[in-house]
Amino acid sequence: GWHFRAEGWNASRPGGGVTILKKDGTIVRRLPSPQELKLGASFEGKPFSPCDIAISPKGSILVVDGYATDFILEYSMKGEFIGSWGGPAEGKPGQLSNAHGISVDTTDPTKPLIWIASRNENKIKAFTPDGRWVETIDLPGAFAGQLFIRDGKMYTAVCWSKDKGTGKKRDESGFLLVIDAKTRKVISAPGGTAPVYKEGKLQPIYQKEPIFLHGHDLYVDDAGAIYLGEWNAKRRYPAKLTPTS
What we know:
mainly beta, 5-stranded antiparallel beta sheet, 1 helix, 20 strands, 2% helix
């Protein structure tokens, strides 16, 4: 969705895109943008700035236009446009604001869920595959991204922490969150303050130690090790965290 030079910021938005490639790098096809498809007023005058993609339970491609319109665009594997849902909807539980990550949850194969990070709201929201809102996990203080689900837990990288004193987004911050998939409660926050619940509500979590810089995405292997990719992290390599118990 964005283009950066190697040195400094110098970000530009010439128009993003989604490309399907083979493992050897051969391009199979490029998905048409909303502007090319002429989808209407919700997309006019805005760039195409996709943040993430996922493959739906029925095998279609779900694209999150999270830096522009916050709509979820659905395509067939052949590149045919199927439809869209989501987007800004102030005051409604299913609204999205900086939809920065998307994950497919097939824990219950009869009721699959599409989890989307509404990063500006400090929330992660679940939808049905056709876009109906189901539930929300509130993560106050945490600008979180894509969920990774494994062995009864949900993991997400936090790109920014709020400042404990002002409540504003804090530069050069971030931490991780581990959530119990059954209760939907945060059970650990590496690099952040310990999760505290009062009357069933999670209290704001803040960066405790400057260990991580802008957590952007992660992967959890079969042994439970977490591999964290960071953004704008002074070009350092991804981090690996191993479980202690």
